Amino acid sequence: MRAVARIVAERAPHGGTRLSVLHGESPLLLRRTGPPTRAGVTVHLVGGAAGPLRGDDLRVEIQVGPDAVLTVRSVAAQLALPGRPGLPPSRLEIRATVAAGATLSWLPEPLIAAAGCDHHTVTHVEAADGATLLWREDLVCGRHAEEPGDVRTTTTIRYAGRTLYRHDLAVGPATPGWDGAAVLGRGRAIGTLVAAPALPNEPPSTPVAAMMPPPTPVAAVMPLSGPGVLATAVGADIREVGAALDPLCVR
């Protein structure tokens, strides 16, 4: 299955944000939720079919114009499934651009790597100098009491023309050591949050130590080499990850 979803958010003529493009194709359906407010517009991604499955080629394109404010969420977790044997891995490509003065918050539900899946998510975000970005990615390794399939995520976030964050993660039986101490250890869920130029509920001058979640060996907040912050958490399940990262997403 091939599908493209596209969102273009612009500043409305009389203030606020309007959606000049809101286009989805199953399984990537888009719905604006709630009325536009001065806090911006919210769009939810709705799964119109099962998957992603082997052979699927999916793409999400997001463009946020100057002074527009957009939040993208999803109504449910994304479940990567095996599909027919012999087909290539499923692929989801996400590309976002955020103009100067614009705000984009990407806060979807987790990706779940079901047993037997083979999936690759590739993300590229380009944020201009003066943009505000909040980018969250959560991954759950397998359903309840299930070993995961193979998932690879490749994320690149650029800010003001420079690479701010570049991260590759691979889990599953095709990746030796993914459940060892160097990657997830005993954890079965991982979440990352990238904020630029700062976390939404902390002024830029706040020391990084003051932003730390409650003391835990599996969560940390770190400054990036540039105007940004990275928060990451590993837990036995997504609830533990959410307990560390959710408070950092509140504006």
What does this structure look like?
The protein has 251 residues and is mostly beta strands. The protein has one domain (2-249). It is built from one helix and 17 strands. The protein has one helix at 238-245, and strands at 2-11, 17-23, 28-32, 41-47, 57-64, 69-74, 78-80, 90-98, 103-106, 111-113, 118-127, 132-141, 150-159, 162-171, 189-196, 219-223, 229-235. Strands 3, 4, 6, 7, 9, 10, 12, 15, 16 and 17 form a ten-stranded mixed sheet that branches. It has a seven-stranded mixed sheet with strand order 2-1-5-8-11-13-14, with no helix packed on it. Strand 16 (219-223) and strand 17 form a beta hairpin. The mean pLDDT is 92.
Radius of gyration: 18 Å
Strand content: over 45%
Helix percentage range: under 10%
Q: Which runs of at least 5 residues are low in confidence (pLDDT < 50)?
A: none
Molecular shape: globular
Q: Classify the secondary structure makeup into a structural class.
A: mainly beta
| End-to-end C-alpha gap | 37 Å
Domain tally:
1
Summarize the helix and strand pattern as letters. Answer: EEEEEEEEEEEEEEEEEH
Number of helices: 1
Give the mean pLDDT.
Answer: 92
Major β-sheet annotation: 10 strands, mixed
Total number of beta strands: 17
Pfam family, one: UreD
GO molecular function: nickel cation binding
Protein name: Urease accessory protein UreD
InterPro entries: UreD
